[in-house]
Amino acid sequence: MRSAADPGEREAAVAAPLASPSGKALPIAVRRLSKAYGAVSVLDDVDLDVRPGEFLTLLGPSGSGKTTLLMAIAGFLRPDKGSIRFGEREVVRLAPHKREIGMVFQNYALFPHMDVARNVGFPLRLRRVPATEIARRVEAALEMFQLGGYGGRSINQLSGGQRQRVALARAIVFEPRIILMDEPLSALDKQLRERMQIELRQLHDRLGTTTVYVTHDQREALTMSDRIAVLDRGRIARIDTPRAIYDQPGSRFVAEFIGESSFLDVEIVDGVCRAAGSVVRAPKIPAGQGRCVMMLRPERLRILDGSETEAMNRFDGKVQSAIYQGDTLLLQLVLADGSQVGLRMATRGDDAEPPASGSPIAVGIAVGDTVLLADEGRART
Ligand code: ADP
Ligand code: MG
């Protein structure tokens, strides 16, 4: 993305005309929302509360129902049953354009026969805003997305990143109190996508709107969200802050979907847990089962050298491979019982050579960081 010549100018364009007065953000309350296609249930009794001004992300694998839930909130899809309230108002039977939401679709859905300015001004014409006011607000919205001067361009003269920004400008131009976005960055290359993640989050904070954002990219969800709702086959498996979900995923499905992890089978006999030939301790042990699984985040696992001061769970094994990835070194290890785990450590300029493959290694994770999860396989949580 181009940066504007004068950052002060850009800030002024951003702050003044478009910022909604604070306190206008609306909460969204979804209750018992269901949708089926034939015998296939796509949304299964979904309850979801989005707080006013919150950035909430719907995260889940392809086909988990993210778009369906977002389209129901937007009004483009009629659920079979359930309720959706914006603040005090029930909207489940209200037409999309009466819901006063800003919407960004996955494929942008720009009008190819209209130029950039007419695309961005469309929601204002729909609302019969006077022409001079439309011109002013369109220009401010274009400035905001570094598209000043692009108003007369046709859509097919724009790059993917520019189209993306036109779609965003069109979504916010009428100062909606709720913004819904469906994988808006998925078509962009990695660098632009990562920059836009930060910018969209900053935009959200400036506008003070309630935002529901859909992605299947867990890192994007962690980067942008106040809270993440993880969808699994039409149900919300977990909703919490990025940190809480990452550290305490609560189920193997969520642990596998968010962040990297290895899993060890744990046997529990008389309250004593064993995994990969070691006795392990943990703050919480899943109740009532003879077995469970241990989640090992690669960056929480450390090579032990005897200087550790915390209580550690220790595992012995061998180095299988050492992979240099620039910022981190990834060691793939085989433990005493044959399980494979990854260990990731930050690199530095003066790093010693990584351990050679085949060399024995002792690794550990702090007892306080040790997470044991019920072994439900892919069962519902
Ligand atoms: P996501 O956005 O998480 O990838 P979707 O909400 O698009 O998932 O779809 C959820 C499930 O609903 C998928 O299995 C999909 O095939 C099915 N589905 C979506 N729309 C339709 C439709 N119009 N007819 C039949 N099945 C559909
Ligand atoms: Mg989708």
From TrEMBL:
Residues 28-258 form the ABC transporter domain. GO terms for cellular component: ATP-binding cassette (ABC) transporter complex. One of its GO terms (biological process) is putrescine transport. Keywords: ATP-binding, Cell membrane, Membrane, Nucleotide-binding, Translocase, Transport. Pfam families: ABC_tran, TOBE_2. Its EC number is 7.6.2.11. The complex is composed of two ATP-binding proteins (PotA), two transmembrane proteins (PotB and PotC) and a solute-binding protein (PotD). Part of the ABC transporter complex PotABCD involved in spermidine/putrescine import. Responsible for energy coupling to the transport system. PANTHER family: SPERMIDINE/PUTRESCINE IMPORT ATP-BINDING PROTEIN POTA, SPERMIDINE_PUTRESCINE IMPORT ATP-BINDING PROTEIN POTA. This is Spermidine/putrescine import ATP-binding protein PotA.
